[in-house]
Amino acid sequence: MGKWTFIYSTWLVWLVGLAIVAAVLALLASLPMAVLHRFPEKQDKYVKFLRNIMKVRSKFDILSCYALLKIAIIFHFYCWKYTGQGTVTPGWLDWLG
Question: Within 13 Å of residue 29, how many CA atoms lie on the same side as its CB?
Answer without folding.
Answer: 8
